[in-house]
Amino acid sequence: MIPKSRLPTSCAQQHTGHSRRSALQAGAIGILGLGMNHLAGLRQATASEGSRPSGKAKSCIFIFLSGGLSQHDSFDMKPNAPDNIRGEFKPIATKTPGLQICEHLPKLAQRSHLWSLCRSLTHGSNEHSAAHHIMLTGHSDLPTGFSPNNPSRSDHASIAAIAGYAMRSKQQNNLPPSVVLPERLVHSSGRVIPGQHAGAMGPQHDPWMIEASPFHNTSYGAFPEYGFDHQDRGKPDSRLFQAPQLSLPDGLGMQSVHGRLALLDSLNRQRENLASYAQVENFDRLRQGAVSLLTESAVHQALDVTHADDKHLDRYGRNSFGWSLLMARRLVGAGVSLVQVNLGNDETWDTHGNAFPHLKNNLFPPTDQALSALLDDLNSTGELDETLVVVAGEFGRAPQITWLEKHYKLPGRDHWGAVQSVLFAGGGIRGGNVIGKSDAQGAYPAQQPVKPENFAATLYDAMGIPATAAWHDAENRPHHIYSGEPIAGLF
């Protein structure tokens, strides 16, 4: 718990009595016929007032690579290491003198002046579900009672949920402040991966899920162009990328808008009905977000990415990676504060075997193309200065190449929480910069180790969330948002 002296004035007031403003707000609840369940939203608005740091980013696109990107084969290559460590790929020069990355990321290499790397992020888990929770929440510790098979309301809140809570008052619209797309992360067994939701903050603060990519338990990657199966089991993948399929946070009283809204005329019907309904019903800000998501024309355009013009589709790619990053770019343009983009379903980047052909042919091409197009778009309009772009996974990959012949035709690398590389761009990030260093084998940090707490704090700080910010639970107890300092040297 934070000492009262460290809380923003508006937060500390909640423990010293009710202000005139909060009394007026409480009275308005009865006048508007809303009800006590809306006090949480009012408390949230009050708590977010007060001084803020001068973070440049108005929005953030958090690109998550579920499964774990191999640092050796992407952004932290070890060409002088032994054969069983350095791998099959060769490094190439970037636009930044002395900085090299993988030969199969040529577009990003040409744009190194726009991004920076942290090569020393580290945590202690090599298990997928625990590591997802660690990186998606920014907490190295696991909560009491943590279960890898069952997300719980005792879990830590996700970065997306925290940012959505803290950034709401900065928005000039009623759109959801935080969105996750194009799918939830679901294991091949069907269990939902922990760390994606608001956890202890409560379901009313869950990020909004835009589920445009149907679940498939054996196919991964950027379908339909670059879809693949890790173990080549030959099961057909006939998925369609259709947006939007909205999964709204619980407790908003708008369950009727659940379900797939595949056609534009269906969207229009929803828009007309909701707009009419909103004229005769008093919606609080949380419910109004649900209405706005369906009624704003800018949101319609943002979600309808598969029908974008050829120029955009050719640049981003006609696949789930390209469509997802184009959707994210449009949503932040429409005013959403944070968009988490899952590039591939759960464990897409889990390259235990067949690693080198899958990275070379299926994963790097659509990622290199779509991420480069996103950076170009934001840079050309000047929005990159106000949009933080981050790329990370739940962990890195092991130094030694291994071969699980029972499951894979070719070798790969195992899980490795001890070090991974993270890419940052925009939002005041200094381009062409490298923070931290791994050892000669790419196994452990050798300089400036960075924890998930520092990673989360960097996102919060860049977005202007004050270091003293807190969220409040149902008993009105404050919980400090920051658990570490921002990564030094990035900005």
Describe this structure in words.
This is DUF1501 domain-containing protein. The chain is an alpha/beta fold and 491 residues long. The protein folds into two domains: 1-51, no CATH class; 58-243 and 304-480, Alkaline Phosphatase, subunit A (3-Layer(aba) Sandwich), CATH 3.40.720. The chain is 31% helix and 15% strand. The chain has helices spanning 9-16, 20-32, 39-47, 83-86, 106-109, 128-137, 159-167, 264-280, 285-295, 297-303, 310-316, 320-334, 355-381, 452-462; strands at 59-65, 91-93, 100-102, 115-121, 178-181, 208-210, 220-222, 226-228, 245-247, 259-260, 338-342, 387-393, 396-397, 415-416, 420-425, 433-435, 437-438, 445-447, 470-472, 478-480. It has a ten-stranded mixed β-sheet, with helices on both faces. Strands 2-3 form a two-stranded antiparallel sheet. A two-stranded antiparallel ribbon has the order 7-8. A hairpin with a 6-residue loop joins strand 17 (437-438) and strand 18. It starts with 8 loop residues before the first helix and ends in an 11-residue tail after the last strand. Mean pLDDT is 83; it is low at 1-54, 251-265 and 277-283.
